[in-house]
Amino acid sequence: MTSFSEDKIFKNINEEDVKIILDIIDVHSVKVKIWTKELRLFDPKDYVPDIILELDNENMILELQSTPVDESFSKRGLTYVAIGNRVKENDKEMNLIVLSTAEESKVVEYKFSKDSVFTYRIVNLKDLNADTIINIVEAKIRNGLEIEAKELVLYALVPLIKSQNMEKYIKRVVHNLLQVSNVPESVKNLSYGIEWLIVDKFIVDEESRNILCDVLGDRMTLIYEYGDRREKKGMKEGMKEGMKEIIKNLLKSGDTLTEISEKTGKSIKELEEILKD
């Protein structure tokens, strides 16, 4: 995963907001607690599940998947559950649900030994109408109308639903999420967190992935990281070049100079000078 401070992506999310996710996958629980970085970080190289929730009677791992599950995925899911059982701070059973756009809703049974079977559930997100979600949310953004919490969370999932053209929709959704102002901060944070996970998991190009993750996290650390890389290569103008690359990429994603100014702390005049140089 990227170097973004991951423990912040689901900060300040209240119980009712997380229940929106449960509603989408038809799961019901009075208690909902989202696990933060410290409990999600099983292994820094390979085993970082997307979302873990503590519910009334179980702990639930939610995985976002755009391709059909196979034996390799089942092995990874089994590892999540096994390690989760080891590090959990309660006596509840650990289960896995996959939010997929690649196959129908079903129960998967993976036989991992002669007498043992690992069972998990797939929920098909293709049942959701992405075009309807896009039309409703983007119309409300344009007209400054109130957006319902569930609408915004579903909108964050649009790139996963539109998996055949995921990168295009990721950039579109990121741009529009940043324009939303008339919903509670906790709902925005939940939507940003979901989108951050999608960006980090599915954008292949490292530079694009880091930029989008930084924008969603309201952080511009890539400016300094990019500058450092340039400096190590002997380029004296590393920081300025790093900033220029950030500005150009944000302009390509649809941001105006005013919006970029707010995100970077640079005045419009300073941004114009950097671009001109």
Would you mind describing this structure in some detail?
The protein is of the alpha/beta class and 277 residues long. Helices cover 51% and strands 13% of the residues. It contains 13 helices and 6 strands. It has helices at residues 15-24, 37-40, 71-87, 130-143, 149-156, 158-161, 166-177, 185-202, 206-216, 221-232, 238-252, 257-264, 268-276, and strands at 33-34, 51-54, 58-65, 93-100, 106-111, 117-124. The chain has a 6-stranded mixed β-sheet, covered by helices on one side. α4 packs across α5 (149-156), α5 (149-156) packs parallel to α8 and α10 (221-232) crosses α11 (238-252). It is elongated, with a radius of gyration of 20 Å. The model is unreliable at 1-7, 38-42 and 219-239 (pLDDT under 50).
> How is the biggest beta sheet arranged?
6 strands, mixed
Task: Count the E strands.
Answer: 6
Give the low-confidence spans. 1-7, 38-42, 219-239
* Structural class estimated from helices and strands: alpha/beta
**Spatial strand arrangement across the major sheet:** 1-2-3-4-6-5
Summed up, the helix count is: 13
The percent of residues in helical segments reads: 40-55%
Please state the CA-atom Rg, rounded to the nearest Å: 20 Å
In whole angstroms, the N-to-C terminal distance is 33 Å
Indicate the multimeric state. single chain
* Proportion of strand residues: 5-15%
Describe the global form: elongated
Roughly what is the average pLDDT, rounded to an integer? 80
Order of helices and strands: HEHEEHEEEHHHHHHHHHH
